[in-house]
Amino acid sequence: MMSMSGKFKLWVIHALLGLECIHAAEPHHDATDSGDTGAQKMKRVIEEEHEIGFIQTLLVHPTPISVQQSDYQTIEVYESDHFGKVFLLDEALQLTERDAPHYNEMLAHVPMMEYLAVQQPDEGGTINALVIGGGDGYVTSELLKYPNVVIDHVDLDKEVINVSKEHFEWSSAWEDERVNLIVGDGAAFVREQVEKKKKYHVIVQDASDPFWYDENGEKIILPSHVLYDMKHFDGIYALLEDSNGVFMFQAETYNIPSNLEEIQTWKKSLEEIGFDGVRYGSIAIPTYSTGQIGFFVAHVSNKDMVCKSDGGVCTMDLSAGLIDWTVVSSQFEKITGTTKYYHPRIHRSAFDLPFWVEEAIYDSKE
Protein backbone atom coordinates (compact mmCIF):
# COMPACT_ATOMS: atom_id res chain seq x y z
CA MET A 1 0.00 0.00 0.00
CA MET A 2 1.47 3.32 -1.14
CA SER A 3 0.10 6.46 0.45
CA MET A 4 0.29 8.79 -2.55
CA SER A 5 -3.23 7.94 -3.60
CA GLY A 6 -5.71 5.06 -3.61
CA LYS A 7 -4.41 1.72 -4.84
CA PHE A 8 -7.63 1.13 -6.71
CA LYS A 9 -9.88 3.33 -8.75
CA LEU A 10 -12.85 5.31 -7.59
CA TRP A 11 -13.72 3.59 -4.34
CA VAL A 12 -16.55 5.51 -2.71
CA ILE A 13 -18.34 5.04 0.59
CA HIS A 14 -22.11 5.03 0.81
CA ALA A 15 -24.64 4.35 3.54
CA LEU A 16 -26.75 1.30 2.87
CA LEU A 17 -30.32 2.64 2.98
CA GLY A 18 -32.28 0.39 0.63
CA LEU A 19 -31.72 1.90 -2.80
CA GLU A 20 -30.69 5.28 -1.43
CA CYS A 21 -26.98 6.06 -1.25
CA ILE A 22 -25.20 8.75 0.77
CA HIS A 23 -21.68 9.71 -0.29
CA ALA A 24 -19.03 9.46 2.39
CA ALA A 25 -17.55 12.82 1.46
CA GLU A 26 -20.51 14.07 3.47
CA PRO A 27 -20.04 11.99 6.67
CA HIS A 28 -23.10 10.07 7.78
CA HIS A 29 -22.92 8.59 11.25
CA ASP A 30 -26.53 7.49 11.88
CA ALA A 31 -26.01 3.83 12.79
CA THR A 32 -29.60 2.88 13.55
CA ASP A 33 -31.89 1.15 11.09
CA SER A 34 -35.29 2.66 10.36
CA GLY A 35 -36.77 -0.85 9.97
CA ASP A 36 -38.33 -3.11 12.59
CA THR A 37 -35.38 -5.47 12.96
CA GLY A 38 -33.19 -3.15 15.00
CA ALA A 39 -30.32 -4.06 12.71
CA GLN A 40 -27.49 -1.59 12.34
CA LYS A 41 -27.13 0.33 9.11
CA MET A 42 -24.01 -0.46 7.15
CA LYS A 43 -21.98 1.56 4.69
CA ARG A 44 -20.79 0.30 1.38
CA VAL A 45 -17.27 0.71 0.06
CA ILE A 46 -17.89 0.55 -3.68
CA GLU A 47 -15.42 0.29 -6.52
CA GLU A 48 -16.49 1.01 -10.07
CA GLU A 49 -14.25 -0.07 -12.92
CA HIS A 50 -15.83 1.92 -15.73
CA GLU A 51 -13.61 0.36 -18.37
CA ILE A 52 -15.12 -3.09 -17.87
CA GLY A 53 -18.47 -2.18 -16.32
CA PHE A 54 -17.53 -3.75 -12.99
CA ILE A 55 -18.75 -2.87 -9.50
CA GLN A 56 -17.57 -4.42 -6.23
CA THR A 57 -18.92 -3.69 -2.74
CA LEU A 58 -17.67 -4.20 0.81
CA LEU A 59 -19.91 -3.52 3.82
CA VAL A 60 -18.46 -1.67 6.82
CA HIS A 61 -19.91 -0.28 10.03
CA PRO A 62 -21.03 3.33 9.50
CA THR A 63 -18.98 5.10 12.15
CA PRO A 64 -15.27 5.22 11.29
CA ILE A 65 -12.71 4.13 13.85
CA SER A 66 -10.44 6.93 12.67
CA VAL A 67 -10.57 9.83 10.22
CA GLN A 68 -7.48 11.95 9.61
CA GLN A 69 -6.63 14.52 6.97
CA SER A 70 -2.98 14.69 5.94
CA ASP A 71 -1.28 17.06 3.52
CA TYR A 72 -1.95 14.54 0.76
CA GLN A 73 -5.16 12.63 1.44
CA THR A 74 -7.99 11.62 3.74
CA ILE A 75 -7.13 8.60 5.88
CA GLU A 76 -9.94 6.44 7.25
CA VAL A 77 -10.23 3.20 9.19
CA TYR A 78 -13.53 1.32 9.40
CA GLU A 79 -14.61 -1.98 10.93
CA SER A 80 -16.27 -4.79 8.97
CA ASP A 81 -17.83 -7.97 10.32
CA HIS A 82 -15.89 -10.43 8.15
CA PHE A 83 -12.77 -8.62 6.96
CA GLY A 84 -11.84 -6.84 10.20
CA LYS A 85 -10.43 -3.34 10.01
CA VAL A 86 -10.63 -1.67 6.60
CA PHE A 87 -8.04 0.96 5.63
CA LEU A 88 -8.96 3.67 3.09
CA LEU A 89 -7.04 6.54 1.51
CA ASP A 90 -9.13 9.15 -0.29
CA GLU A 91 -11.98 6.64 -0.13
CA ALA A 92 -9.79 4.05 -1.88
CA LEU A 93 -9.48 0.67 -0.20
CA GLN A 94 -5.87 -0.13 0.70
CA LEU A 95 -6.26 -3.27 2.77
CA THR A 96 -8.41 -5.27 5.13
CA GLU A 97 -7.04 -7.23 8.05
CA ARG A 98 -8.38 -10.54 6.73
CA ASP A 99 -6.85 -10.60 3.27
CA ALA A 100 -3.91 -8.22 3.73
CA PRO A 101 -1.59 -11.25 4.18
CA HIS A 102 -2.32 -12.37 0.60
CA TYR A 103 -0.76 -9.31 -0.97
CA ASN A 104 1.84 -8.25 1.58
CA GLU A 105 3.32 -11.68 2.27
CA MET A 106 3.86 -12.25 -1.44
CA LEU A 107 5.46 -8.83 -1.91
CA ALA A 108 7.92 -9.59 0.88
CA HIS A 109 8.67 -13.32 0.67
CA VAL A 110 8.83 -13.83 -3.10
CA PRO A 111 11.82 -11.49 -3.58
CA MET A 112 13.52 -12.58 -0.36
CA MET A 113 13.23 -16.26 -1.20
CA GLU A 114 14.44 -15.70 -4.74
CA TYR A 115 17.40 -13.71 -3.46
CA LEU A 116 18.29 -16.51 -1.05
CA ALA A 117 17.78 -19.14 -3.74
CA VAL A 118 20.53 -17.52 -5.77
CA GLN A 119 22.93 -16.66 -2.99
CA GLN A 120 22.66 -17.59 0.64
CA PRO A 121 24.41 -14.94 2.75
CA ASP A 122 27.26 -15.82 5.04
CA GLU A 123 26.38 -16.41 8.67
CA GLY A 124 25.63 -12.96 10.03
CA GLY A 125 25.86 -11.37 6.58
CA THR A 126 23.54 -8.43 6.01
CA ILE A 127 20.74 -8.34 3.44
CA ASN A 128 20.08 -4.70 2.56
CA ALA A 129 16.44 -4.08 1.61
CA LEU A 130 14.55 -1.01 0.43
CA VAL A 131 10.76 -0.65 0.74
CA ILE A 132 9.15 2.12 -1.33
CA GLY A 133 5.61 2.90 -0.19
CA GLY A 134 3.75 0.46 2.01
CA GLY A 135 2.91 3.09 4.61
CA ASP A 136 0.84 0.59 6.60
CA GLY A 137 4.05 -1.23 7.53
CA TYR A 138 2.93 -4.75 6.60
CA VAL A 139 5.60 -5.50 3.97
CA THR A 140 8.30 -4.23 6.31
CA SER A 141 7.02 -6.45 9.13
CA GLU A 142 7.21 -9.50 6.85
CA LEU A 143 10.76 -8.71 5.73
CA LEU A 144 11.84 -8.55 9.37
CA LYS A 145 11.19 -12.29 9.67
CA TYR A 146 14.62 -12.71 8.07
CA PRO A 147 17.18 -12.07 10.84
CA ASN A 148 19.91 -10.72 8.56
CA VAL A 149 17.79 -8.07 6.88
CA VAL A 150 18.31 -4.31 7.34
CA ILE A 151 15.63 -2.07 5.84
CA ASP A 152 15.35 1.47 4.52
CA HIS A 153 11.62 2.20 4.33
CA VAL A 154 10.50 5.37 2.55
CA ASP A 155 6.88 6.56 2.43
CA LEU A 156 5.41 9.92 1.53
CA ASP A 157 2.75 10.47 4.17
CA LYS A 158 3.65 10.66 7.85
CA GLU A 159 -0.02 10.62 8.88
CA VAL A 160 -0.58 7.28 7.13
CA ILE A 161 2.27 5.89 9.19
CA ASN A 162 0.86 7.38 12.41
CA VAL A 163 -2.64 6.00 11.80
CA SER A 164 -1.19 2.60 10.96
CA LYS A 165 0.84 2.59 14.16
CA GLU A 166 -2.33 3.19 16.14
CA HIS A 167 -4.62 0.67 14.46
CA PHE A 168 -2.59 -2.21 12.97
CA GLU A 169 -0.51 -4.60 15.03
CA TRP A 170 2.08 -5.25 12.34
CA SER A 171 3.10 -1.57 12.33
CA SER A 172 5.28 -2.26 15.37
CA ALA A 173 7.86 -3.20 12.73
CA TRP A 174 9.07 0.41 12.70
CA GLU A 175 10.21 0.02 16.29
CA ASP A 176 12.75 -2.60 15.21
CA GLU A 177 16.28 -1.20 15.22
CA ARG A 178 16.90 -2.80 11.82
CA VAL A 179 14.43 -0.40 10.18
CA ASN A 180 15.33 3.11 9.04
CA LEU A 181 12.04 4.92 8.34
CA ILE A 182 12.25 7.88 5.95
CA VAL A 183 9.26 10.16 5.36
CA GLY A 184 9.63 11.43 1.82
CA ASP A 185 9.08 10.93 -1.88
CA GLY A 186 10.04 7.45 -3.08
CA ALA A 187 11.14 8.47 -6.56
CA ALA A 188 13.31 11.28 -5.19
CA PHE A 189 14.83 8.93 -2.62
CA VAL A 190 15.84 6.50 -5.36
CA ARG A 191 17.52 9.28 -7.32
CA GLU A 192 19.39 10.45 -4.23
CA GLN A 193 20.63 6.96 -3.39
CA VAL A 194 21.80 6.39 -6.96
CA GLU A 195 23.92 9.54 -6.68
CA LYS A 196 25.36 8.19 -3.42
CA LYS A 197 26.05 4.83 -5.14
CA LYS A 198 24.03 3.00 -2.51
CA LYS A 199 23.36 -0.70 -3.13
CA TYR A 200 20.53 -3.00 -2.05
CA HIS A 201 19.98 -6.72 -2.38
CA VAL A 202 16.17 -6.54 -2.41
CA ILE A 203 13.86 -3.66 -3.38
CA VAL A 204 10.09 -3.88 -2.86
CA GLN A 205 7.85 -1.19 -4.32
CA ASP A 206 4.35 -1.18 -2.81
CA ALA A 207 2.88 1.66 -4.86
CA SER A 208 -0.61 2.81 -5.71
CA ASP A 209 -2.11 2.76 -9.18
CA PRO A 210 -0.29 4.96 -11.70
CA PHE A 211 -3.53 5.71 -13.58
CA TRP A 212 -7.23 4.97 -13.90
CA TYR A 213 -10.04 5.59 -16.37
CA ASP A 214 -13.04 7.76 -15.50
CA GLU A 215 -16.65 7.22 -16.57
CA ASN A 216 -15.98 9.12 -19.82
CA GLY A 217 -13.14 6.81 -20.79
CA GLU A 218 -10.48 9.43 -20.08
CA LYS A 219 -7.17 8.21 -18.70
CA ILE A 220 -6.30 9.99 -15.46
CA ILE A 221 -2.58 10.02 -14.60
CA LEU A 222 -2.01 9.69 -10.86
CA PRO A 223 0.98 10.92 -8.79
CA SER A 224 2.48 7.45 -8.41
CA HIS A 225 2.99 7.30 -12.19
CA VAL A 226 6.57 8.47 -11.57
CA LEU A 227 7.25 5.15 -9.84
CA TYR A 228 6.44 3.22 -13.01
CA ASP A 229 8.34 5.07 -15.70
CA MET A 230 11.56 4.04 -17.42
CA LYS A 231 13.68 6.60 -15.57
CA HIS A 232 12.60 5.27 -12.18
CA PHE A 233 13.14 1.64 -13.20
CA ASP A 234 16.62 2.65 -14.39
CA GLY A 235 17.29 4.02 -10.92
CA ILE A 236 16.08 0.82 -9.28
CA TYR A 237 18.39 -1.19 -11.53
CA ALA A 238 21.34 0.99 -10.55
CA LEU A 239 20.60 0.51 -6.84
CA LEU A 240 20.59 -3.29 -6.96
CA GLU A 241 23.71 -5.32 -6.32
CA ASP A 242 25.29 -6.34 -9.62
CA SER A 243 25.85 -9.96 -8.63
CA ASN A 244 22.45 -10.61 -7.09
CA GLY A 245 19.60 -8.15 -6.66
CA VAL A 246 15.83 -8.61 -6.79
CA PHE A 247 13.13 -6.03 -7.59
CA MET A 248 9.47 -6.65 -6.71
CA PHE A 249 6.56 -4.31 -7.39
CA GLN A 250 2.77 -4.17 -7.50
CA ALA A 251 1.69 -4.60 -11.12
CA GLU A 252 -2.11 -4.37 -11.33
CA THR A 253 -4.76 -6.89 -12.34
CA TYR A 254 -4.68 -8.47 -15.78
CA ASN A 255 -8.51 -8.49 -15.91
CA ILE A 256 -8.70 -4.87 -17.08
CA PRO A 257 -7.49 -4.31 -20.69
CA SER A 258 -5.63 -1.05 -20.01
CA ASN A 259 -3.83 -2.68 -17.09
CA LEU A 260 -2.80 -5.63 -19.24
CA GLU A 261 -1.35 -3.23 -21.79
CA GLU A 262 0.71 -1.58 -19.04
CA ILE A 263 1.85 -5.00 -17.80
CA GLN A 264 3.18 -5.71 -21.30
CA THR A 265 4.91 -2.32 -21.37
CA TRP A 266 6.52 -2.76 -17.94
CA LYS A 267 7.90 -6.17 -18.87
CA LYS A 268 9.52 -4.80 -22.00
CA SER A 269 10.90 -1.79 -20.14
CA LEU A 270 12.47 -3.94 -17.44
CA GLU A 271 14.08 -6.23 -20.01
CA GLU A 272 15.38 -3.30 -22.07
CA ILE A 273 17.02 -1.87 -18.96
CA GLY A 274 18.80 -5.18 -18.36
CA PHE A 275 16.79 -7.06 -15.74
CA ASP A 276 16.84 -10.86 -15.92
CA GLY A 277 14.08 -13.30 -15.07
CA VAL A 278 11.28 -10.75 -15.49
CA ARG A 279 8.06 -12.54 -14.53
CA TYR A 280 4.50 -11.53 -13.76
CA GLY A 281 2.86 -13.35 -10.86
CA SER A 282 -0.72 -13.40 -9.62
CA ILE A 283 -2.27 -13.08 -6.16
CA ALA A 284 -5.84 -14.04 -5.27
CA ILE A 285 -7.34 -11.42 -2.97
CA PRO A 286 -11.11 -10.96 -2.62
CA THR A 287 -11.30 -7.26 -1.71
CA TYR A 288 -9.12 -6.00 -4.57
CA SER A 289 -10.65 -5.19 -7.93
CA THR A 290 -11.77 -8.35 -9.78
CA GLY A 291 -10.35 -10.46 -6.93
CA GLN A 292 -6.86 -10.56 -8.44
CA ILE A 293 -3.73 -8.41 -8.27
CA GLY A 294 -0.36 -8.99 -9.88
CA PHE A 295 3.31 -8.29 -9.31
CA PHE A 296 6.53 -8.27 -11.25
CA VAL A 297 9.70 -9.83 -9.93
CA ALA A 298 12.94 -9.09 -11.76
CA HIS A 299 16.60 -9.88 -11.10
CA VAL A 300 19.97 -8.27 -11.56
CA SER A 301 22.38 -11.18 -11.62
CA ASN A 302 25.27 -13.03 -13.13
CA LYS A 303 23.50 -15.67 -15.21
CA ASP A 304 26.46 -18.03 -14.82
CA MET A 305 26.21 -17.98 -11.03
CA VAL A 306 25.85 -21.33 -9.29
CA CYS A 307 23.51 -21.66 -6.34
CA LYS A 308 23.81 -24.00 -3.41
CA SER A 309 21.19 -26.64 -2.79
CA ASP A 310 20.89 -29.53 -0.37
CA GLY A 311 22.35 -31.88 -2.95
CA GLY A 312 25.25 -29.78 -4.18
CA VAL A 313 25.23 -26.97 -6.73
CA CYS A 314 22.95 -25.93 -9.55
CA THR A 315 23.28 -23.47 -12.39
CA MET A 316 20.82 -20.59 -12.20
CA ASP A 317 19.14 -19.58 -15.44
CA LEU A 318 17.07 -16.61 -14.35
CA SER A 319 16.30 -15.70 -17.93
CA ALA A 320 14.09 -18.80 -17.95
CA GLY A 321 12.66 -18.00 -14.56
CA LEU A 322 14.18 -21.08 -12.91
CA ILE A 323 14.64 -21.01 -9.15
CA ASP A 324 16.27 -23.55 -6.83
CA TRP A 325 13.12 -24.61 -4.98
CA THR A 326 15.12 -26.84 -2.65
CA VAL A 327 16.67 -23.71 -1.18
CA VAL A 328 13.30 -21.94 -1.05
CA SER A 329 11.79 -24.86 0.87
CA SER A 330 14.66 -25.01 3.34
CA GLN A 331 14.49 -21.25 3.92
CA PHE A 332 10.73 -21.42 4.41
CA GLU A 333 11.18 -23.97 7.19
CA LYS A 334 12.78 -21.18 9.22
CA ILE A 335 9.58 -19.08 9.11
CA THR A 336 6.97 -21.86 8.92
CA GLY A 337 3.95 -20.99 11.02
CA THR A 338 4.41 -17.23 10.66
CA THR A 339 2.61 -16.78 7.31
CA LYS A 340 -1.07 -17.10 6.41
CA TYR A 341 -0.86 -17.00 2.61
CA TYR A 342 2.72 -17.50 1.45
CA HIS A 343 4.37 -20.89 1.09
CA PRO A 344 6.79 -22.26 -1.54
CA ARG A 345 4.09 -24.01 -3.58
CA ILE A 346 1.97 -20.87 -3.92
CA HIS A 347 5.13 -18.92 -4.76
CA ARG A 348 5.89 -21.29 -7.61
CA SER A 349 2.31 -21.53 -8.87
CA ALA A 350 1.81 -17.74 -8.83
CA PHE A 351 3.50 -17.62 -12.24
CA ASP A 352 1.13 -20.18 -13.78
CA LEU A 353 -1.25 -17.79 -15.51
CA PRO A 354 -4.37 -18.31 -17.61
CA PHE A 355 -3.30 -19.17 -21.14
CA TRP A 356 -4.70 -15.97 -22.64
CA VAL A 357 -2.75 -13.92 -20.08
CA GLU A 358 0.49 -15.81 -20.76
CA GLU A 359 0.06 -15.18 -24.47
CA ALA A 360 -0.58 -11.48 -23.90
CA ILE A 361 2.43 -10.96 -21.62
CA TYR A 362 5.04 -13.33 -23.02
CA ASP A 363 4.09 -13.72 -26.68
CA SER A 364 3.33 -10.09 -27.47
CA LYS A 365 5.04 -9.03 -30.72
CA GLU A 366 4.68 -5.31 -30.14
TrEMBL record:
Keywords: Polyamine biosynthesis, Signal, Transferase. InterPro entries: PABS (IPR030374), SAM-dependent_MTases_sf (IPR029063), Spermi_synthase (IPR001045), Spermidine_synt_N (IPR035246), Spermidine_synt_N_sf (IPR037163). SUPFAM superfamilies: S-adenosyl-L-methionine-dependent methyltransferases. Belongs to the spermidine/spermine synthase family. It comes from Skeletonema marinoi. Residues 44-300 form the PABS domain. This is Spermidine synthase. Its EC number is 2.5.1.16.
